[in-house]
Write a structure and sequence with these properties.
By secondary structure, this protein is mainly α. Helix content is about 75%, strand content about 0%.
């Protein structure tokens, strides 16, 4: 007991030390919510992974591999495919985020559709979907303290201690915002995923390991079948599980906001590649180890405690303590990221949509929302503890969050669709998903075991397309969207404002047209130079662009001087600037 609690205490002190060393007062809400968009690819990648795999991956997902066999690999399938898809949307999302100071996922949808209501609905769905994962995280922390105490602490005590630990950690999350999360995510991720992967390799190759790779040849036949292959599930269950995982992967608020923390587009793209390597490699090794350990009587008898049972059998109290520290690291990292995302969205997108808030007010509301959110999760964690098949909580949350995907994906890649379609589609999809999930928490047998979230997603898509076709999109809105897509491709054409539906260009009097046009062109050149530097293009290409920009700017200034001289306008220096 003393050894395990001591290891947890040392690790937690390490978190506090990292926070003290990196403490920096936020100068704005942008700095608080996305860390000033200042992080490189490895920091962003590990932050992705911390927002992806919670500590319960060692409990509910490891238990799934023991109880259901190769079905456990579905998590590997959807995580790697989801992160791969993130690669393709990241650059567009980052450019819009940088240009228009976006700090949340609803911010982006509000910008794309020119509607505050779209942002509010997106935020509500996101916050609701996050809650089950925080509940799972709190239960994982309670499990850690229960095992570390040798089973002498009752569940309420373990939950209270877990809550107290999170609240102590939240002091710095509340003070530092995303900046503190990103730095501690690296420290926590090294323990939770990198060291865990090393331990998994050791367990597989060590000759005396009870989970040696040779035991994979002895896996019972029933663990080699996927759901729908002759059991009670229909043929669409596996498809639904992976499909909602891949689609939902891009919709999680805590993952999506990581895009905005990167310092440039190149870092965003690199970070998704690195995250695939870390998340996929870790999960694959964990799943293989748990399959190899499925023959152990204690593991098979209690699959959700399989990871800790295995480590105790092989390495005694010290290896068990390390395993508990891994669960603790993954849990506290995921909880922090989830709570921070929920608090930011409540302040920025729900309250902020109704009342004009200053940066200071947003920060205060965000902090208060975080505290209330974590308290609610702790209460619900108590009442759902011991629930069979805990991973169902995670699957249910996916049924909700995938409803954001239709306006998000179509809005990022296609100009088709308007605010009416986005609102109607998300609301219809969420209502259908909620109704079907209440009636069929796992699957719908009559429909080949398809899940309620997939059915709702198709309803969402149908409503989005139909309503967008039936409602006219004004010409001004089309022009605004055209400008957004020009910026997404790396251009600098427009002056779009968030939440507005106005074109970025306006006609001016003929006498001022030349001067205004040349001034705008000079600004465009300057923005192009900034884009070249922000995207960190190869040195030769960037140098070529800068040389061309300098030549163009010189010519434009001369044109501005001539224009002002003809019209008797302001001095040439002022016009050129």
């Amino acid at each position: 007991m003393a050894v395990m609690l001591g290891m947890l205490g040392v690790f937690f002190l390490g978190i506090i030390a990292v926070l003290y060393l990196t403490l920096k007062k936020s100068k704005s809400f942008d700095d608080y919510a996305v860390g000033g968009r200042s992080f490189g690819p490895w920091l962003v990648a590990m932050s992705y992974v911390n927002s992806w795999w919670p500590g319960t991956v060692f409990i509910s997902f490891a238990g799934l591999s023991v109880a259901s066999g190769v079905f456990g690999f579905y998590g590997l399938a959807y995580s790697t495919l989801g992160l791969a898809a993130m690669y393709f949307i990241a650059s567009r999302a980052w450019r819009w985020g940088k240009r228009y100071n976006l700090v949340t996922q609803p911010d982006l949808l509000r910008l794309r559709y020119g509607s505050k209501a779209v942002g509010v609905v997106t935020s509500i769905i996101g916050v609701i979907a996050i809650l089950p994962w925080v509940i799972l995280g709190m239960q994982a922390l309670a499990t850690v303290f229960s095992i570390a105490s040798g089973g002498t602490w009752a569940l309420p005590v373990c939950l209270i201690i877990g809550l107290a630990t999170v609240l102590i950690r939240q002091i710095w999350t509340v003070r530092m915002g995303m900046r503190g999360l990103v730095y501690t995510d690296m420290y926590q991720g090294l323990v939770a995923y990198v060291i865990a992967a090393i331990v998994c390799v050791l367990l597989l190759v060590a000759p005396n390991s009870p989970a040696n790779w040779s035991y994979l040849a002895e896996i019972p036949d029933q663990l080699l079948f996927l759901p729908g292959d002759g059991d009670s599930y229909g043929p669409l269950y596996m498809f639904s599980s992976v499909f909602t995982g891949v689609v939902g992967a891009l919709c999680w608020p805590m993952s999506f906001v990581r895009i905005y923390t990167a310092n440039n587009v190149k870092s965003v793209k690199k970070s998704t590649n690195y995250a695939m390597l870390i998340a996929g490699g870790f999960y694959a090794l964990l799943t293989i180890v748990m399959l190899a350990a499925s023959h152990i009587t204690g593991v098979a008898a209690n699959p959700q405690a399989g990871w800790t049972t295995l480590l105790e059998n092989y390495g005694g109290v010290w290896l068990l303590g390390l395993g508990l520290t891994m669960i603790f690291a993954g849990s506290i990292g995921h909880i922090d990221g989830s709570v921070q995302a929920a608090g930011t969205q409540i302040a920025n997108d729900i309250v902020g949509s109704k009342v004009e808030l200053t940066d200071a007010q947003k920060t205060v509301i965000s902090k208060a929302s975080m505290m209330l959110f974590i308290a609610l999760a702790a209460v619900l964690a108590y009442f759902t503890n011991g629930m069979d098949r805990l991973q169902l909580l995670a699957q249910i949350s996916y049924q909700a969050v995938v409803q954001i995907s239709v306006p998000l994906f179509l809005g990022i890649f296609f100009k088709f669709g308007n605010k009416n379609g986005a609102l109607a589609g998300m609301i219809a999809g969420f209502v259908v998903a909620a109704g079907l999930t209440i009636a069929f928490p796992d699957d719908i047998p009559a429909l080949g075991s398809i899940t309620g979230g997939v059915v709702a997603l198709f309803v969402n898509l149908l409503v989005y397309v139909t309503v967008s076709l039936l409602t006219k999109t004004p010409d001004a809105e089309r022009t605004r969207v055209d400008e957004l897509f020009d910026i997404a491709r790396g251009g600098s054409r427009g002056t779009v404002t968030v939440g507005a539906a106005v074109p970025g260009m306006a006609s001016v009097a003929e006498g001022e047209g030349v001067a205004c046009g040349t001034a705008a062109s000079v600004t465009t050149c300057e923005e192009a130079a900034a884009t070249a530097m922000a995207e960190n293009e190869p040195e030769g290409l960037a140098a070529s662009k800068v040389a061309s920009i300098a030549t163009a700017a010189s010519s434009l200034r001369e044109a501005a001087v001539a224009s002002c001289a003809r019209s008797g306008g302001a001095p040439a220096e002022a016009s050129a600037s």
